[in-house]
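User: Round two. Same drill as before: sequence, then structure, for each protein.

Assistant: Same drill it is. First protein:
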Amino acid sequence: LLFPVSNLCGKCRPRDTDLLQPSLNFLYWSLHQTTPCSQQRAVAVLLSNVSLLELLQKVLECTWLWSPPSRPAYLSSEDALLCSGWLLVASLLLYQHRYNTEVHQTLSVDLREVLNAVIFRNKKPILLLVSIMQFLRAVLRQNFSSSLLVIVGQNTAPSATQPQPSSLQDTALHPLAMQQVFSLVVSLQNLLVHKDLLLSQAVVACLETLVEYLYVKNQDVALHVVSQPWHRFLLFTLLSGGQKSFLQPEVLRLMTLFVRYQSSNIISQKEISQIVQEAGEANLAELPEATSCALHLFLCQV
């Protein structure tokens, strides 16, 4: 079925949302739900279809064109198609890298547009924001060097004879700039305060991947970012309200991140003891799967 469905997609225009939406979802499902041995073949089939990749290129570009000043509160058919497009491209990036699949047609994405979509949001629906963050995680994990993707809108390193410290940091973090990193971190923190489960999972995962990327590029920058005092205020905000429990998936994953990078000014021995105590008093068999996984990762990190 991959052959006819992918060929059908290649004959469509981005405005054919009623046909493209289920088709792209089928391709995405096929990549994730098939057996490992078939997965490699599925990736090869999709990446060899030039017309499909050209269609995906147009769909991604529509993200910046279909952005009216007042978006509806619900997920429109256009936004749903954009979600499917970003998720499928993120998956293709992941599996192309895993299997080193031959690429017949590259995709081009403006990095500034992707970052601005998360930093400024511009009333984008939560699901579209999550989908774009999944794509951002994929390119961060691959160090912006995928053979499937061409990154445009990159920051060019200054050519001054004696660059300033910020210029040196920008060079080390290329294609990101230091200012973009801080703006992205602040925006992720603000999105986390919304306490939407799907959004929280995506935000924490994106923050984890970003810090891992920074740590490889420049350890001082990564440690500086993860030790910002605002993180502690964010934790208190997440713990406020009706359920003052450390056993929340997003809180546990944030705590794990701070323990991993030894941010003792953000998470202290007291908080670690409270988490262990709460875990000891909880009925572990009744914890949601997301909480169990997050708690497991936290305890292993400690």
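Second protein:
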Amino acid sequence: MGDAFIRHIELLGYEKRFFPSQHYVYMFLVKWNDLSEKVVYRRFTEIYEFHKALKEMFPIESGDINIENRIIPHLPAPKWFDGQRSTENRQDTLAEYCYTLVNLPHKISRCLHVVNFFKVRHDDMNPVTDSQIKKPEVFLLPKDSKKNLTDITGPIVLQTYRAIADYEKSSTSEMALKAGDMVDVVEKSENGWWFCQLKNKRGWVPAAYLEPMDGPDESEEQEPNYAGEAYTVQKSYTAVEEDELTLREGDTIEVIHKLLDGWWVIRKDETTGYYPAMYLQKAGEVNTSVKSELRNRGAPPRRSTIRNVRSIHKQGRKQISQETYRRHSRKYIQNQRKVRGNSQNKANVIIEKDEPEDNKPKAQPAVPPRPSKDLILNRCTESTWRKIL
């Protein structure tokens, strides 16, 4: 795959924060060329500094040489004091700016300056907060707000899920849930943590606590792949449940089933069990800072550990037992050994068939019996008679 670039940027709203002092940050949903979607937070002062640097990089396109050549959109400078009203009023302008930016010529819209500015940062995943100070307030852009140019790319339809049990958050980046809460899922991460919104609240929620509204969600999960996909363990984990595996950092394993709750079924030699997906990395893949930050989070809860589940899909959900995983893994490994053994035997036969004639041992002629004297007298010449008589 080529260099990363942004396909679409949508302004979701803004957040009012109180640490280290009161300020506002805008929330953006950034869609990348690899089909991933990330939520990032930026102050308007940061956005304006980014805008000024972009204009300096492309003076012709910014209209500094000839105003008629300007294609980079305008952005008003921040006010001396930005309050909530100015932050809210600026949303339409900012949404239009982002749409125009992404649709500029590739030399601008896909340059490193743009790509790096909208990449996920550490504080996007774990914003700096103080538990003693008032928690951030989230203000989402109203769905019935004035239509802007970002609608041309098509609206983003968020899936609605229901909470199947109460969940108490363990960090400021998470969101607490009550059984029956309806949440919109903004981002699904394969590590088992999903970024959701509930009214004007946003945060990470374990996928195991959510179920879709229209039916069992096993259709969203991949089928088991007993051939296995090579992964490397990036963080050690000690098994808590009987069907989990204990592994050390650096171990190489095979993933045979990727489950939505972030606990994948893996195979180590001939042993199978569950392991947190966020502690695994595909073999040969370069480690990234974003993945490193995710691995510093705790593993999400497993579906099987959730108590008092109030799920309308509990009975209809297809589940695979650990014994089934082990049995099929053993069958697969044995079949692979048979295939390798048969191919080796065939190779040996082919070598024997194709062996050159010169290398094969030649058959020795049989020694005939010595003829009797009567036979010699009847069939041989006189000179032969004299030699033997």
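Residues 322-353 form the longest helix (32 residues).

User: Perfect.
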